[in-house]
Design goal:
This is 3-phosphoshikimate 1-carboxyvinyltransferase. Catalyzes the transfer of the enolpyruvyl moiety of phosphoenolpyruvate (PEP) to the 5-hydroxyl of shikimate-3-phosphate (S3P) to produce enolpyruvyl shikimate-3-phosphate and inorganic phosphate. By secondary structure, the chain is an alpha/beta fold. About 30% of the residues lie in helices and about 20% in strands. It contains twelve helices and 23 strands. The chain has helices spanning about 25-35, 50-60, 90-100, 125-130, 165-175, 195-205, 235-250, 270-275, 310-315, 340-350, 380-390, 410-415; strands at about 5, 15-20, 40-45, 65-70, 70-75, 85, 105-110, 135, 145-150, 155-160, 180-185, 210, 215-220, 230, 250-255, 280-285, 285-290, 300, 325, 350-355, 360-365, 370, 395. The chain has a four-stranded mixed sheet with strand order 2-15-17-16, covered by helices on one side. A four-stranded mixed sheet has the order 4-5-3-14. It has a four-stranded mixed sheet with strand order 6-7-9-8. A hairpin with a 5-residue loop joins strand 8 and strand 9 (about 145-150). Helix 4 runs parallel beside helix 5 (about 165-175) and helix 5 runs parallel beside helix 6 (about 195-205). The longest helix is centred in the middle third of the chain and has 14 residues, at about 235-250. The chain is globular and about 60 Å long. The chain starts with a strand and ends with a helix.
């Protein structure tokens, strides 16, 4: 057992400039596209974290060449083949993006991951692949894919209301299927649609013909994927705890390299922080957030940006008015049941949090120190760090889980509290 991490308190408003590592979402999509491409690719300033290292290691295991060139990765595609064992860890992008690519490989490929990963929904993607011609044993981790060297492809109807990753995972490999791919969603609205838009834009950037003009339907024409240079943006969702530090302490934090245009859902934090009373400015220096004297509560539909929920819930617990966070029932199927986890942790610190069918109601209440469970969830861990800035004695039981997407989060947090760059 690791020792709990006592979240540092900031006695003064946080003032810092922070550089955030690259986007996990872009890095792992770029890796899949590069390995399936018709020639070499380079991935500039990729994120190197547990999730992306797991993806790179899995692709190497299946035959691809991914080599270091300074801070970058050079990727030489190869025909994927087993026998091989793939460790998905707790990475949704690995367990849902890699099987559709491995389905055009040859041989037996076994997938498994962390104990918590075995509870994550997988039936949608595995049943879809079976419908497209794949031979798979098992309905969740662990499962085995019996590769035949190609996949017929064609049309498939799925219910992607639990995760946008089901759609993205299929689309990324669709061009390499014999008949291409048509994915139709039939169910409640798909969460985190910006992530699917990111996938579509990256496919088009690699020369793939994608038609998404019809609601809840995506057509990918068969053909090659062009090798190219991918430049990875900073991970905007991972930047939100640092912006929250300015919000809860009345400080001022600048995130360098914030793009003026992006498909990353994390960009929506700008409007939410403004609603809560922060001053938000985007210019050539990056995104700067200045916190107010007191935060206001917020009523927010987070269906498209569910990954921001732990950060926003931490802010809401420190705000003056009631907050209602809606549209996030799908978070019950993430690394943990994030709604139940947030309610348990915040109430454990003296908060007043009520779970609803699709979200949380958070009412202001004085908080006290105590244990904060990460539940093996990186975003739960960073939410505890935010609260610890102004609540003495918050102890996060597993801060190391942040390595999933943020290398050395404690070090970066301490650097911010020391003034940043």
């Amino acid at each position: 057992m690791t020792q709990p991490w006592v979240a540092p308190v900031s006695a003064t408003p946080v003032r810092a400039t922070v550089s955030i590592p690259g986007s996990k979402s872009i890095t792992n999509r770029a890796l899949i596209l590069a390995v399936l491409a018709d020639g070499p690719s380079s991935i500039r300033t990729p994120l190197r974290s547990r999730d992306t290292n797991l993806m790179a290691a899995a692709l190497r295991t299946l035959g691809a060449q991914i080599t270091d060139e300074g801070e970058d990765w050079l990727v030489t595609p190869a025909a994927l083949r087993g026998p091989a064992d793939v460790d998905c860890g707790l990475a949704g992008t690995v367990m849902r993006f890699l099987p559709p690519a491995a389905a055009i490989g040859q041989g037996e490929i076994r997938f498994d991951g962390d104990e918590q990963a075995r509870d994550r929904p997988m039936g949608t993607i595995l049943d879809a692949l079976r419908g497209l011609g794949a031979d798979i044993t098992g309905d969740r981790l662990p499962f085995t894919l019996h590769g035949k060297g190609s996949l017929p492809g064609g049309e498939v109807t799925i219910d992607a209301s639990a995760s946008s990753q089901f759609v993205s995972g299929l689309l990324l490999s669709g061009p390499r299927y014999d008949k291409g791919l048509t994915v139709q969603h039939d169910g409640k609205p798909v969460p985190s649609m910006p992530h699917i838009e990111m996938t579509v834009q990256m496919l088009r950037a690699a020369g793939v013909d994608v038609n998404d003009s019809e609601t809840n339907t995506w057509h990918v024409q068969p053909g090659s994927i062009r090798g190219r240079e991918w430049v990875v943006e900073p991970d905007l969702s991972n930047a939100t705890p640092f912006l929250a530090a300015a919000a809860v302490t009345g400080g001022r934090v600048t995130i360098t390299g914030w793009p003026s245009q992006t498909t990353q859902p994390g960009d929506d934090i700008r409007g939410i922080l403004e609603q809560m009373g922060c001053d938000v400015e985007l210019d050539a220096n990056g995104l700067t957030v200045t916190g107010p004297d007191r935060l206001s509560g917020v009523d927010a539909d987070l269906h498209e940006v569910g990954e921001l929920t732990p950060t926003i819930a931490a802010l809401a617990a420190l705000a003056d008015g009631k907050s209602v966070l809606r549209g996030i029932a799908h978070l019950r199927g993430h690394e943990t049941d994030r709604l139940a986890a947030l309610a348990e942790d915040l109430n454990g610190l003296g908060g007043d949090v009520e779970e609803t069918e699709d979200g949380l109601v958070i009412r202001p209440r004085a908080l006290h120190g105590g244990g904060w469970k990460a539940f093996a969830d990186h975003r739960m861990a960073t939410a505890g760090a935010i609260l610890g800035l102004v609540v003495t004695g918050v102890e996060v039981d597993d801060i190391a889980t942040t390595n999933k997407t943020i290398p050395d989060f404690p070090g970066l947090w301490a650097q911010m509290l020391g003034g940043g760059q």
